[in-house]
Design a protein that fits this description.
Elements lengths: L2 H11 L5 H17 L9 H45 L3 E5 L5 E4 L1 H7 L3 H4 L13 H12 L7 E6 L5 E13 L2 E10 L1 H21 L1 E4 L5 E4 L11 H19 L3 E3 L2 E3 L4 E4 L8 H17 L4 E4 L2 H22 L3 E10 L4 E12 L3 E3 L5 H6 L3 H20 L8 E5 L2 H5 L3 H12 L6 E6 H6 L1 H13 L3 E7 L6 H6 L4 E4 L1 H5 L5 H16 L3 E5 L4 H9 L4 E3 L7 E2 H10 L1
Parallel strand pairs: 10-11, 13-15, 15-16, 16-17, 17-18, 18-19, 19-20
Antiparallel strand pairs: 1-2, 1-5, 3-4, 4-5, 6-7, 8-9, 12-13, 12-20, 12-21, 13-14
Helix pairs in contact: 2-3, 12-14
Bound molecules: ligand C2E and magnesium ion (2 copies).
One magnesium ion binds next to loops.
Length: 572
């Protein structure tokens, strides 16, 4: 190629072609020319353009490849950093061991766990860091790998450089890299779990020794069962729940057989509360939750098993807030006594029932159904019950001086807990004495369930109170399970037919029949019979025709505050 030709080529194409590519193309042509011995072939502009185009495409390809490479490098770098973080900052310790058990590599977590820098760990035998007492465990665990039995993991205590020991779970895997066998040891700290297990074990033992029951079954074989506390550990949540349920079924089944005690068979009923332990639960939480579940089981009827339900917890939290307020209510004098008249068939008022109300500063008047059951669960019912008794007797004292009211009697509701107090008789005596009122004007209302809790003790106590001159009425009669033989033994003056029968007397023939039977039974046993919840004339007429001559209910009056009662008394 002549220089003249070259020049003319340059001049005609320079603007059209990329200058750097043009120079490269020139160099390529020069090389080609040098290899072109004895050739005088000239290159056309077209040939030149084609080569430039090829080069251009090639250049773009190279650039793309280059970019890809840079990207791959960055990825690799990131992944390296990630791996480094995962490896070093993992929640578990990683140790790479030689076949002889020397540490070849350690992550930061293992160095933190052991309290020794990674550099110092290298080349040390791992057994150096295992507590003397637990060396055998490690030895056997290691051995399980060589004799092919491969235990999945073991638990032992390792040593910190400060001399303390801590529980870990060890898992290991082997890697064969280029004919060299390496062991990877994974160290999971389990101190918290171990501590909780130990607390649980101690608590379970304590609980068992408190609640173990000696029971003689129908065949007279002494069995010692511990249904009160059983802990299942090492199961998934679902497995544990299923197992607990099955265990509960078995316990219920075993309790269905009668127990032979002294001379007769007894049938037991039971309730079971179950809670599943979370890793962050304390032993106190565990007992609290089991108690709540048990409480729920008891409320759901006999022979039931209930799991702890967190919404129940919320209800109970509300309860404890209410309980605190209730405590305050006493000292802040927020309770009021309302009085509901009790009348005879001629609508003459013979007495009143004292019914408590809570005058809450924000929520207004609260019905006893909303706080008495709660007060009964705690000891709060005791001071509240005493307050009611004192207030009722003070009212009797006021009425004593007025001939129109001097003969009125007051009925006071008594809770089981209150009645069971060892000094309940003395309390009654004291209050009567302090007020100087006629004891026969005071009537205590007991429920069937109270009486049946311990019939013998109840009869004795009732007799002592009756000896003071006080009367008794059996409240809500018909809803419980009293038998005729118990009823005859109790020193009762009155039976009070429960309002649930009275209200629905004409709805169901059964109710009519029950009301008639109660009346006949009461009269037969020499008691007077009063019906509560009388709302219609028809009800009153039916009761009267059946022999019930005393009534209490909205037909006559709602429970009234004392000022309104006094107005009512003047008008009737
Ligand atoms: P109780 O002793 O059976 O009282 C009768 C309840 O029936 C009262 O409800 C009364 O207001 C209501 N009642 C009266 N007449 C009628 C009527 O015609 N129809 C209807 N549907 N209801 C009527 P109250 O006052 O809400 O008391 C509820 C329960 O709270 C009482 O039932 C009693 O068990 C308890 N209680 C009330 N005051 C005290 C107390 O001072 N101490 C204790 N331990 N318990 C109390
Ligand atoms: Mg009552
Ligand atoms: Mg009642």
């Amino acid at each position: 190629m002549s220089s003249k030709n070259q020049l003319s080529l340059k001049n005609t194409t320079k603007e059209k072609l990329n200058p750097s590519l043009y120079e490269k193309a020139e160099k390529i042509l020069q090389l080609k020319e040098e290899t072109r011995v004895n050739s005088d072939k000239k290159y056309s502009l077209l040939e030149m353009q084609e080569i430039c185009h090829d080069l251009e495409v090639h250049e773009i390809e190279l650039e793309m490849q280059n970019e890809e490479l840079i990207h791959t490098y960055q990825e690799l770098d990131n992944s390296n950093k990630r791996y480094f973080d995962f490896y070093n900052l993992a929640p578990v310790g990683y140790l790479t061991l030689s076949e002889e058990g020397l540490i070849l590599e350690a992550n930061l977590t293992s160095s933190t766990l052991l309290g020794i820098s990674t550099q110092i760990l290298i080349q040390k035998p791992v057994s150096h860091f295992i507590l003397q007492e637990d060396q055998d465990i490690y030895y056997l665990y290691n051995k399980s790998f060589s004799d092919q039995t491969k235990q999945p993991s073991c638990e032992l205590r390792m040593l910190h450089s400060d001399g303390t020991s801590f529980w870990v779970q060890l898992e290991s895997s082997t890697q064969n890299s280029d004919g060299i066998v390496l062991h990877r040891l994974i160290i999971s700290p389990i101190n918290e779990r171990k501590k909780a297990q130990e607390e649980l074990r101690i608590a379970a033992i304590a609980f068992k020794s408190q609640n173990g029951m000696a029971i003689t079954d129908a065949d007279g074989i002494i069995e010692r069962i511990n249904p009160a506390f059983t802990a299942l550990t090492g199961y998934s949540e679902e497995e544990a729940a299923t197992l607990a349920n099955q265990l509960g079924e078995k316990i219920f089944e075993s309790m269905q057989k009668p127990f032979f005690l002294k001379t007769r068979d007894y049938y037991a009923q039971m309730s079971i509360g179950v809670t599943l332990l979370n890793s962050d639960d304390t032993v106190e939480d565990l007992f609290k939750h089991a108690d709540i579940a048990l409480y729920q089981a008891k409320n759901s009827g006999r022979n039931t098993l209930r799991f702890f339900d967190p919404t129940m917890q919320a209800t109970l939290d509300l309860h404890s807030a209410l309980e605190a307020e209730l405590r305050e209510a006493l000292s802040k004098n927020q309770f009021r006594l309302y009085y509901q008249p009790q009348v005879d068939e001629l609508h003459r008022v013979g007495g009143v029932e004292a019914l408590i109300r809570w005058l809450h500063p924000e929520r207004g008047l609260i019905s006893p159904d909303d706080f008495i059951p709660l007060a009964e669960e705690s000891d709060l019912i005791l001071p509240i019950g005493l307050w009611v008794l004192q207030s009722a007797c003070e009212q009797l004292k006021i009425w004593k001086n007025n001939p129109h009211t001097a003969q009125l009697n007051v009925a006071v509701n008594v809770s089981s807990r209150q009645f069971r107090q060892p000094d309940f008789v003395a309390q009654i005596q004291q209050v009567l004495q302090n007020c100087g009122v006629n004891p026969s004007l005071l009537k205590l209302e007991l429920t069937e369930s109270l009486v049946l809790e311990n019939v013998e003790e109840t009869i004795q106590k009732m007799a002592a109170i009756q000896h003071l001159g006080v009367n008794f009425s059996m409240d809500d009669f018909g809803t419980g399970f009293s038998s005729l033989s118990y009823l005859a033994q109790l020193p009762l003056n009155q039976l009070k037919i429960d309002k649930s029968f009275v209200n629905k007397i004409f709805e169901h023939r059964d109710n009519e029949m029950i009301a008639r039977t109660i009346i006949a039974m009461g009269i037969g046993l020499g008691m007077n019979v009063i019906a509560e919840g009388v709302e219609t004339i028809a009800q009153q007429k039916f009761l009267e025709a059946s022999g019930c001559l005393f009534y209490q209910g909205y037909l006559f009056s709602r429970p009234l505050p004392i000022e309104e009662l006094e107005v009512y008394l003047q008008q009737n």
